[in-house]
Design goal:
- By secondary structure, this protein is α/β, with parallel strands linked by helices.
- The protein has a single domain, classed as Rossmann fold.
- It has eleven helices and seven strands.
- Strand 5 and strand 6 form a beta hairpin.
- The longest helix has 22 residues.
- The relative contact order is 0.15.
Length: 298
Amino acid sequence: MRRWIRRATSGIRGRVGRLLHPGWYSWNDVEVAFIVSTGRTGTQKLAHVMSALCRGVDARHEPSPDMFDLGTDYVRGRIALERALVHFRISRDYVCREIHRVGCDYYIESNNNVSLIIPVIRRFFGRCRIIHVVRDGRDFVRSAYSKVVPSVSRPGAEVLLLSDADPRKRLQAPDFEHDPYRDRWSQMSRFERLCWLWMKLDSMICQEIADDPLAMTVKFEDIFDEASDYKGLWSILDFLGLASRMTVPAERVAQLMSEKTNRTARYLISPWQQWPDEMMFQFSQIAGEHMAHHGYSC
């Protein structure tokens, strides 16, 4: 009887300990994948769909903290890899705890800010899989040009992304010593800066995952193409080994994909097919070469 009581008490202590201390938990028994991109690529929808479709999957879009500060500090050289690893581990301890609490064994984080710390997550997770979602840069620019973010100086107000009033210190050409636009940045329009931002962020992702067998690139247009039965989505599910975890019929997939999530409410510039020659020339000069890398005509 005393032996049984000791075992029961020990089990209770273990369960309480796991609730109170994340060190009781480990990522070793959880499969992990990250969805990275420049942003404005439907990754919030992807996280929602994967959690809804697949058994045992906890998919989250930009969990807090969203890694923006860590990513930009890392790229700017303000924090070294080993220190960034510590920050990343601490920031995701609670996620590890919650995953185990709900009984999931597959974690997917959809987060464009993680694009800046791929070496960190590679070192931390080792064999995690990475899905790189790329979107036609012109569509990114149109969406980002119209994107509003909360203002810090005026509570309740909103300001435009990458405007002078944007409270987040986003990457700029002067952050990179040999960037060809470093000395021209102050004269560039917001439109040109967004063209640069798409090119720079996506180029950095491509460089980090080049020749990586645990990473794949899939086009936004293929993921959300109803005419092709969302072939990009199925490619992702196959790559992540999630097809066997599907718990809903195929028609439910189409319903989930057709639901609108985080769409731009109002565009401030026209579709790129209607851009004047000057805008098309500016985009092509800055991002045309990288567009060709992905097979987009420009």
